[in-house]
Amino acid sequence: MNASFFLRARRGLIPLSMLLAAGVAQAHPGHGAHGLTEGLAHPLGLDHLLAMVAVGMWSAAALPARRALMGPAVFVLALLAGAAAGLAGLRVAGTEALIATSVVLFGVLLAGVRQWSAVAGLSLVAASAVFHGLAHGAELPVGASALAYVGGFVLSTLVLHVAGLGVGTAMRRAQLWTWRAAGSLFGAAGLLMLARV
Fold first, then answer.
1. Alpha-carbon distance 77 to 47, whole Å?
2. Membrane-spanning regions, if any (predicted)?
3. 29 Cβ partners below 8 Å, 6+ apart?
4. Which range of residues forms the domain containing residue 171?
């Protein structure tokens, strides 16, 4: 192994470790949901943050470069569909546990980044996004600005996807153990969140 390999691996794993070291939070902590500012802040809960970064990382590594934006695009569209259902009053029992489980599954996706087909990976991305969206939509109180709130959390989501795309691009040529280590970190964080739901 040469020095450039370790440099590439370090560039990807150091930000990831810092992200995970920030602390494991409850899936959707008690913040407001009244408008743009709260919408921008909402995806910064650890569950959503890890999911968005994982989607970007997987997309950069598993999809052809010209199609890397498919993962984030699928996530955002499914997120909006779930949010619309949540705003309309749909409630699903165990949504918080399903969101934490999605982080575990994203860890599995990253650990097996070269084994999953694009269709299987994108299906997991879409299904997870629906539950994240349901939680977002369900939190909007009566009289709050739905458009500003939704716009805020979509914008933050896209920024996190771009961050993940950057990390995934830096790790694209990394050996499988690097991806397995990253996937294990994500999976462990998801399991800790699941234990606290």
1. 19
2. 43-61, 68-87, 93-111, 118-135, 147-170, 177-195
3. 45
4. 3-22+33-196
Q: pTM for the complete prediction?
A: 0.80
Which residue is it, tokens 């950069």? 60
What are 112's two structure tokens?
């097996």
Give 5-25 pLDDT, tens digit per residue. Answer: 445 545 555 554 444 444 333
Average pLDDT over every residue of 70-95? 93
Q: Do the domain assignments include residue 190?
A: yes
User: Is 159 part of any domain?
Assistant: yes
Count of structural domains within the chain: 1
Fill in the amino acid letter for 116. W
Cα–Cα distance for residue pair 161/53, rounded to 1 Å: 5
- Rounded-to-integer distance, Cα 18 and Cα 13, Å: 9
Residues 6+ apart with CB under 8 A from 111: 179, 180, 182, 183, 184, 187
The residues, ordered by sequence, that sit 6+ positions from 77 with a Cβ below 8 Å of its Cβ are 126, 129
Half-sphere exposure (CA, 13 Å, Cβ side) for 2?
A: 2
Round to whole Å and give the CA distance between 31 and 10: 34
Residue 89 lies in a domain: yes
Between CA 36 and CA 38 the distance in angstroms is 6
The two structure tokens encoding residue 39:
């919408």
Residue 28 falls inside a structural domain: no
